[in-house]
Amino acid sequence: MTTQLRSTDGNESMAPYQVRRYQTRDIPAELSVPAGERTLLIEENFIGEGGTSSATVHVGEGSTLVYAWNVVSHENAERTIALSLASHATALFYGIVLGRERGRLQFHLDVRHEAEDAKSASVLRVLLHDAARFDADATLHVLPQAHRSDAYFESRAILLGEHAQSTVRPALEITARDVIAKHAATTGPVDPEQLFYLQSRGLDMPAAQRAIIDGFVYDVLRKLPKEEARTLTTSRWDHALAERS
Amino acid sequence: MNTSDPVAKNIPAKEYAFGFHEPENNFYTSGKGLSEDTVREISRLKNEPDWMLEFRLNALRVFFQKPMPTWGGDLSHIDFDAIRYFIRPSEKQGKTWDDVPDEVKRTFDRLGIPEAEKKFLAGVGAQYESEVVYHSLKESLSKQGVIFTDMDSALREYPDIVRKHFGTIIPSADNKFAALNSAVWSGGSFVYVPRGVHVGLPLQAYFRINAKNMGQFERTLIIAEEGADVHYVEGCTAPVYAADALHAAVVEILVQPRATVRYTTIQNWSKDVYNLVTKRAFVHEEGTMVWVDGNLGSRLTMKYPSIHLLGRKARGEILSLAVAGSGQHQDAGGKVIHSAPETTSTVTSKSVSREDGRASYRGLVRILPSAVHARVRVQCDALLIDDASRSDTYPTMDVLRPDAIVEHEASVSAIGDEQLFYLQSRGLTETLASAMIVNGFVEPIVKELPMEYAVELNRLIEMEMEGSVG
Fold first, then answer.
1. Residues 140..179 of A with a Cβ closer than 8 Å to B: which?
2. Neighbours of A97 (CB within 10 A)
3. What is the pTM of this model?
4. How far is CA B295 from the centre of its chain?
């Protein structure tokens, strides 16, 4: 489905976002964001389908891609996403993963800065229940000609299940000097200090945990640029998280 | 003399001034290449017990079976057939000061290396004249029951302790180069610190070394009994002019409950050396292990000091510094495996790449299911000086427990233009300003070094930056 909706970021002079929403099984293996355009790509797998799939997105000169990847995992699956950025391109990747039961999700992210003045920010939020397992490698490549690149990757995982496991391998391969490249990764339980704070304000433990998890997820969802798309995706996550709370 | 077969000569036994004894028969001129015969001959000349010969031969078989690693640096130019696997100390003389490259001599001058040290480092002197200093140090150590000797002597004089621990922390089959070391090891240090003993001064392999110890295949074993405390230092910032192309050392460290071991390395091998080292420590309850690992030289270094936290509340710390200049690849980092409850670790890595140098951080943090409430923090920062410089970061965080807290962050950047401008506006040249910024960047690691190393390292960085700027 492709819908033209007006941008909600207040900048009416820029091209409006084109919204493309796909189920994982339907997403094309190769996509492009034409030069100068802005695309919000929403990929969903709320039913937890397994299997192996991959997608490559070419982000054209001066264009913007916002890629929202939404996954509920309870079967074994492997997903590869590759983003290549032309000059002055911007790629923002927001991934939310909810792992359940014994689902094992292998995720490979490859972000390649191929030309100057491109910017990328990739953010992952992972919640693992039961004996779910998340295994991710994410590589940021900055090629020699990609001057003034700004590349960032962040992964935050909360392990909720007693047998949940997470392996993350964020890598940087930087061959241009005048760039900024960073990554960060954290894995742990729900912060006990945050839990205590909320309980001291009258919430019981389940409600406190749910509030923290909601904040953990919605912190990413609120970054989606289209109000209608954001609302729809948020409601789907409301439902998915409620099933597990 | 280059021959494909070993040639043995009989020479009279002679006695070193400070008590070293040569075996009664033969010196060994090693031909090139590795075979079972070579290993048997090494063991025979060292008068080793049968178990060590068997250990070596098993390791040799593992070495031949294991493939070369396909990750990390480029190992394709190593010619195992061209390496001499055992050279007696008396053979290492014969080089003159005139043979030492001018670049090496200039570096010695700039770093303020004393005359006697220069010749030793350049391989011209077979024995460092600080033997007198070492001798008095050895007396005070022995009063505490501390053993600090070379590995060959330890095998002869303390066979029970050595046999109990040798190869238990890094078995021969660990990796191909550990297998090679296990087959042909020679030299290295043995340190034993009894229960409750605190060794006040750092034990410096530098003092202990003569050419006998400083070799391609050093094997070091350090045992700190319960409550012991020791700091071991090896290497130096000055370039070590090595004729050997391959340095494949193994370091095993056992930290018993409530003991503390700090192991500091500064390596600055000449730029034709492959530096492939396996280092690992086992840390028991409430013990502490600290690796301070500085890599400045060599053509390729692949070294990942590791810590296994096996006891409750054991602690590990890895401080890694890598400086990659022209034609160099520093592939360094560290590994921490948490196996016990309430264990903690931190890894701090700083790397600098200049000219076409490549610095790679490669690390592993693994939290096993038994590591209840483990906590880890990793921080890697990289600085790129020139357009052709390269930096890589390859960390792995493997968390198999839901209550572990693991944090990792990394950044790569160039020297900030604003920082340079600020310093230059205060009257510093661009070279000095760049050197100051780089020294500030590596300060968290350098401040952990013994003072004389820190001073030399800062000078070395200034010299390196002179070549980069302008």
1. 144, 157, 159-179
2. 25
3. 0.86
4. 9
